[in-house]
Every structure is written in structure tokens, then in C-alpha cells.
């Protein structure tokens, strides 16, 4: 039987109910994380839960947990559901209260919910690449927070699906920001370009791993905004996230990127990523040093 985490309890799926007036439900007033499980082990758990605590802090949500406390909770869920390869989703809302935009006073207890999913690495698309489409970034100005408010992201992804693409790469005006649920990169003349970490993008953990791998391989990693035209004319394009890893984009808006094949720098990063999964401690993330 599949268990779901509700606050500190592991309950059966059909008993996993939340209050109708939970602020996550009425306002999207909450935050979340998605952590990968490889070989029965949480991947880059510490930076993920550090980011969750940061997101909580940025929206003024009081969460009385430590990184290790959260890891323990989620670990229990993974064991209970016997997840070998897959992922775990965890969200925290500001709690249940009569509907009023302002924070509840006195404050109410945050609600935590978590569930798991079992699946393999996306080998086929990692090998062949995916299609992407560009779309205007209509999201708010705090995209650095992994917030439950995902309507902009949802509409972007749906637009991609409509045009037979697997990801939408967003841009504000001419400047490329990120994918609907991934970070985006253009590779040109041997260097990797990606939007700098600020309020306009989510600071991806996979992005941090890619940066480390690039540095190890002496591939320049330039955190500079670039234009949609630059993206279209890139030699290689990738998008990255916890679930899609280092994903090549071989076709953008119906046109081939480069020669339409997965390029050598992408392959190098993918090799490095597989190595990192097999031996996580090989490249300590900045947050873990
Ligand atoms: C989660 C997310 C990412 C990728 O972050 P990872 O930590 O690599 O999974 C990128 N962009 C958005 C908008 C996201 O929500």
C-alpha cells in the first residue's frame, strides 16, 4: 500500500486528506521541493532541503524543522514505499485558516504533505534529446522561491505540449530566463551560457551540479543572460532539473539546434552527471563544503 506523508504521519493514500481551507489550496500559499532517489538514496538531499527552508523564510512561513529533520521524515516515506529509483515531492503550506489574504493571526500550524513516485532515469530522451518551444515568461518577480503558485509555469508547459514539445523555454522580452520546470542553457563556441542566479530564475540544484562538472572539465560556465536569438543559434541547448537531469534540446520552435544531434559538450556533462550519481561525494556541492 502506498503511503503519503501528512505532517509527521505516514498514512494510506485514501486517508491522505487535507482541510478545504488550507492556504495552499485557496492561495497557493506554500512552497515545495522535489528530490530524486537513485539506488534507494536521496540525491543531493541537503541542498534541496536547505532551499526548502530558504523558500519558507522568503515567504515568512515559520517551519520548525532542520534540514536533517526533514531528510529523516522523507527518508521514512521512501523506505515505506520501497522507492529504489524515483522521486519524492514535499510541500509545506501556511496552514488551514478562514480565507483572508493576510497571514492568519495568531499563526496556524504549517501543513506538510509528501508523496513518492517510482521511475527510472529518462534514458531514451537523454540519448536522443527533446523538442522545446520558446514562450514569454509571464510569471511573478520572485521566481527564486519554489512556490506552489505555478500557474505561469503550468500555462507555459501546456503551450509546449500543444506544439509537440517537451519543454517551454521562457524569456522576458528578449532575455531567456529558464524552462517551465527546468533551467536552460545555450552552448556556443565551447562555452556554456545560463541566466545568472537572481529573482528571475530558480536556483536549480541540478544547475549547481552542472556548474561543478563544467568547472572540473574546464568548460567555461558563463552566468550571463542571453537572447532568444542567441539560443536559436546555439551549437547545443540543454535544460536541466531533478527529474530530467542534463536534457539535450535538439529542436527549438520546429527548427534543429546545430546539426539536430546531441552535441559533445552535452555528452560530457551527461557523463559527468552519471558519474556524480554513482559517486555523489565525488564533487561536493558548494552548499555541502
Ligand atoms: C525546480 C525547478 C527547476 C530545477 O531545479 P532542480 O533543483 O534542478 O530540480 C528549475 N526551474 C523551475 C521553475 C523549477 O521549479
Task: Characterize this entry briefly.
The protein has helices at residues 23-27, 45-58, 67-80, 123-128, 151-162, 205-216, 228-232, 264-278, and strands spanning 3-6, 9-12, 30-38, 41-42, 86-93, 111-118, 130-136, 167-172, 175-179, 183-188, 191-194, 221-223, 236-241, 245-252, 255-256. The protein folds into two domains: 1-119, Aminotransferase class 4, branched-chain amino acid transferase, N-terminal domain (D-amino Acid Aminotransferase, Chain A, domain 1), CATH 3.30.470; 122-275, D-amino Acid Aminotransferase, subunit A, domain 2 (D-amino Acid Aminotransferase, Chain A, domain 2, Alpha-Beta Barrel). It is 29% helix and 28% strand.
Mean residue pLDDT: 96
What small molecules does the structure contain? pyridoxal-5'-phosphate
Q: What are the secondary-structure elements, in order, as H or E?
A: EEHEEHHEEHEHEEEEHEHEEEH
CATH topology description of the largest domain:
D-amino Acid Aminotransferase, Chain A, domain 2
Largest sheet: 9 strands, mixed
The DSSP helix count reads 8
Oligomeric state of the chains in view: single chain
Rg is 19 Å
Please tell me what the overall shape is: globular
Percent helix: 25-40%
Q: What is the end-to-end distance?
A: 39 Å
Catalytic activity: D-alanine + 2-oxoglutarate = D-glutamate + pyruvate
Subunit structure: Homodimer.
GO molecular function: D-alanine-2-oxoglutarate aminotransferase activity; pyridoxal phosphate binding
Protein name: D-alanine aminotransferase
